[in-house]
Request: fold
Amino acid sequence: MEPRNSVTVSGPATSANLGSGYDCIGMAVDIWNDLTITRAQQFLITVEGESAELVPRDESNLVCAGVKAAFRAAGTDEVPPLHYHLVQRIPFARGLGSSSAAIVAGLLAGLALTGCKLDIRGKEALLNLATEIEGHPDNVAPAIYGGIQLGLYSARQERWMTTRVSVPHDLIFVVFIPPAGRKTNTKELRKCVPTEVPMQDAIFNMGRLAWLVTCLLTGETSEMREGMEDRLHQPQRGDSVYHHLYPMITAAYDAGAKGVYLSGAGPSVMAICNGGMGDFFTQKDDAIRQDHAVAQAMMATASELAVEGEVYVTRPASNGGLVIKADPPYSSELLTYTGGLASAQGIA
Reply:
């Protein structure tokens, strides 16, 4: 193992559940946080960017939990003094996987600092470390691997597992995001969700999730709406906490969205549209693209309900968290990793 003095990791936002897939499916979203960790004389966390004032500056920050787990995986319980610098772009605590991004970034950075490498095939050790911290794989799996990931716990193999589900290539995400501080604590939101459900509701969701995965695999996004219907968590959260949810879902569908759902534990609402082939700004497909109409419909609904918020337009992220810079670098005389990266001033 070759330890490193400093490492920078970039990790994506994620959007979990996709309506019917409560706690088992999620996708990576093209909004990225950066984490730089440097060996130092004393513990320090500095933060800049989105909702920086809300991010913990002590060891309760989930980045630290990821780093500690990585050091344990490398064979030591002792984490040396480190300077953590966070550049935040993912909206904090608003249903877009900011906690999973922190956990995975901490794990990747800690592994890079120690020089430890974990097994993937047949073990998925990194996924299992992340899931131990997060509790379920729906956000951490796409934060690690990108794309859409479907995860479960295998009693036979005694580990968490995940598999990639195909992402249709032209998706556009239109996300209504309320201001920081509007989300109820995720643990509190879970109290809205029943621990036992009627058989017909379980059957309803099983069928919808199977339908959703089939639509994704075949690219039949026009039929995706039914696959995002849910009885296990969205109605409960919509009735108890997020009164904007179902009016906004209806408005987005009426404006042409192919799928709409509560992103993670909310309060953000994700609408999926078509027509996102290539660059958004220099190419157009007026016959298909409805993202502007959907955004306008969502904002109009928010205005009618006196709910503050803004709309982000983005797309899927095909890869998960990555080391983008290291000292000493990973590149050598033998090989150079892509991105301009032959030195610590480059990328890796």
